[in-house]
Amino acid sequence: MIGKEFRIRESKHYNNIYQNGKKYLGRYLVVFILKNDLGINRFGIVTSKKIGNAIVRNKAKRRLRAVVDNNRFNLEQGYDFVLVSRPLISKVNYIQIEKDFISVMRKTGIC
Known about the structure:
- The chain has 111 residues and is α+β, with helices and mostly antiparallel strands.
- It has helices at residues 11-20, 54-71, 94-108, and strands at 22-25, 29-35, 42-46, 79-85.
- The protein has a single domain, classed as Ribosomal Protein S5, domain 2 (2-Layer Sandwich).
- It has a 4-stranded mixed β-sheet, with helices on both faces.
C-alpha cells in the first residue's frame, strides 16, 4: 500500500506535473514525471470515464497502485509521477500492466 506521504493529492500539484513534467507513453498507461525537491517519490493515479464504469475504473486504479507498490524501490528518488490509464488497460491482466510500467520507466532512465 502506498502511504499518504507518497501520494499526490492536490489538483495544483497534478496541474504542475502536467504542464512542466515530461510525458512518456506506454501501451496501457501514460506517465508524467517531474523532479521534486523532497527526496522521495510521490505518485498520483488517474483513470477517466473513457476506461469504463466505476467498477472498471477502480479495478484499473487498484492494479496501478499494486504495480507502483511492487516497483517503487527500483526507481530513483526525488520524482513526482502521475500515471494516467489508457482505455486498453481494462482488457489486460496485471502482468501486462506491470511489463508496460517497467518498459515506460526504462524509457525515462529512472529505472
